[in-house]
Design a protein that fits this description.
single chain, alpha/beta, THUMP fold, Rossmann fold, seven-stranded mixed β-sheet, 10 helices, 32% helix, elongated, RlmM_THUMP-like
Length: 358
Amino acid sequence: MTSILAYCRPGYEADTAQEITERAAILGIYGYCTFDSGQGFINFKVQNHTDADRLGLELRVSSTIFARQLIVAVAELEDLDTADRISPIVEAVASFRSDHWQNGLLFVEHADTEEGKDLAKFCRKFAVPLRQSLRKHRLLTFKEKPELRAVHVFFCRTDKALVGYSYPDCRSEFANGICRLKFPSSAPSRSTLKLEEAILTMLTAAQQQSVFRAGGRAVDLGACPGGWTYQLVQRGQFVEAVDNGSIDDALMASGQVEHFAADGFTYRPQFGRVDLLVCDMIEQPERVAKLMGDWLVKGWAEHAIFNLKLPMKRRYETVTTAIDGLQKRLQNISGNFNLNHRHLYHDRDEITVTVIRQ
């Protein structure tokens, strides 16, 4: 039985399984999920390879909430001989040789768990001889080509691996589906990485250029101590930082930040509107989604990037309810919006939402 292998944050397996099952059903593809809580991935099993391949072609990682990577898994190899792990993997890759698709990349990966992290060094070393062998057997191009299909070898243990592939328009470009960013030493908090990842992975290059035009104005609700404001300042924005707490001194000294000790739910932009609204307040997701909708519907902000904090249970339902309500409100105003929502690597128990006016 072929499956779709979805990587996710450990502890979010049930949410990922529910989402992938529902998304597959919309495409008329039915199956069931297997997973263990905390393992960092789920298997969505289907009856035939055709269904799995179609899901791999039509379901983009970027359009999901909780999946970090999606691959069509064609083989599960257990009890691999430590003297020769490569031969059975090469044989598995040969089984999905295609007249229509060449393999242009190789990912040797592991789950984002403590056990998985122990495999990281092994995966890096193993990738070198495996890549050579795949090229020798003409199962992988001699130069890396991101525009082609990618081979994935996902190790659960050093003697167990799942082998499969992903399509270029649907996969994450990052190994393990993780966008790793370096924390800027001058940033006031690590929350800055959440907004940076959202900008780099959820906005196209054209959207980034449009939203962060030089001299633009932004509001940061719940700004203290300034992690998100830092990203805005770095991109040339003038920021109204709203929080009853204090804002980082270096940000205030930049000349690009005004601090307003006010309630984020009652604050209004100083000049009637801003280009961008950002928000990382710890509040009920429905309440934050409504507030963001108010700003967009009333024309106080052109675009918005914000986080919705998630409950311990029924996270998928909570997200979809909040997003559905926001989408309905946006449909009643002029203009088109590109709305995306993802559980990013640097997020914790929250998702990031981008609403970009087209």
